[in-house]
Amino acid sequence: MRNRLFIVGLAGLVVAWADAATPAPVEKNVGWDAMLALVRTRFPQVTQLSTAELDAWLKDPKRPQPQMLDAREPAEFAVSHLVGAIRVSPDATAKEILASLDPSRPIVVYCSAGYRSSRLATRLLESGRVRVSNLEGSIFTWANEGRPLVGRDGQVTTLVHPFDRVYGRLLKPECRAP
Q: Helix H segments across the chain?
């Protein structure tokens, strides 16, 4: 737990520093580069799936569709999530999650920016599942690119819960929920 808080805090400081020091748009922000590098370095065993790759996969009727797991808190999920996603606790055990999933279908996990989902993907991989990927950049990148989201009652939305004031800077202003 202490290590987790340190890493999340460190990532937050990197994002905040880079965002404050770089007036570039979100897509080109050094904070994003630092966040993505942190996730790749901390979780090298997790396959990082780009948003473009997931979008193409979801549109391909010939491929078995992934089971999408949203590893965010209920309040975050309520604001918006990817179509068809199932919310799971970011701290759930692999056993708890896998009990309700189809073992023959691949899994794609996402959160806000990719850290919590990569942690969860690691637990799923360590439990023996092999077709598990993290959505690189997670819902923040998905939303920043204008890809489809739904909120309460399946209503289409473009807004995303910003997680907090620091990480929320990784979202385009027009994508940040109040």
A: 2-21, 30-42, 51-58, 74-79, 94-98, 115-126, 138-144
Report if residue 139 sits inside a domain: yes
pLDDT at 19: 43
d(CA 75, CA 117): 16
Q: What is the CATH number of the domain that holds 57?
A: 3.40.250.10
Count of domains in the chain? 1
Residue 155 is assigned to a structural domain of this protein: yes
- Which residues of the chain have a pLDDT value below 50? 1-8, 10, 13-25, 27
Q: In angstroms, rounded to a whole number, what is the distance separating the alpha carbons of residues 92 and 107? A: 15
Task: For residue 105, give its domain range.
Answer: 45-175
Distance CA 152, CA 78 (A): 6
Q: Residue 175: is it exposed, middle or buried by C-beta count within 10 angstroms (0-12/13-18/19+)?
A: buried
Per residue in 18-61, pLDDT (tens digit) is: 444 343 445 456 688 999 999 999 999 999 999 999 999 999 99
**pLDDT number for residue 31:** 85
Q: Please, what's the b/e burial string for 138-154 (b: 16 or more CB within 10 A of its CB; e: otherwise)? A: bbbbbbbeebebebeee
